Amino acid sequence: MTTRKYGHASKSCKICGTHDRLIRKYRLYVCGRCFREVAVKMGFKKYS
Predict the structure, then answer these.
(1) What pLDDT sits at residue 3?
(2) Cβ contacts of residue 9 below 8 Å, gap of 6+?
(3) How far apart are CA 2 and CA 30, in angstroms?
(4) Residues of the chain whose pLDDT is less than 70?
(5) What CATH number does the domain containing 28 carry?
């Protein structure tokens, strides 16, 4: 199996390895599910 250099499956979550709902802003590369778990530890604040 070769690694992808571009497209949807080229990046994956650093924590769980999935390709779904990937947050790439600020070079986080964390999926939405993992982000909800670790956002407060990373310094993000929830406003709503």
Answers:
(1) 83
(2) 19
(3) 22
(4) 1
(5) 4.10.830.10
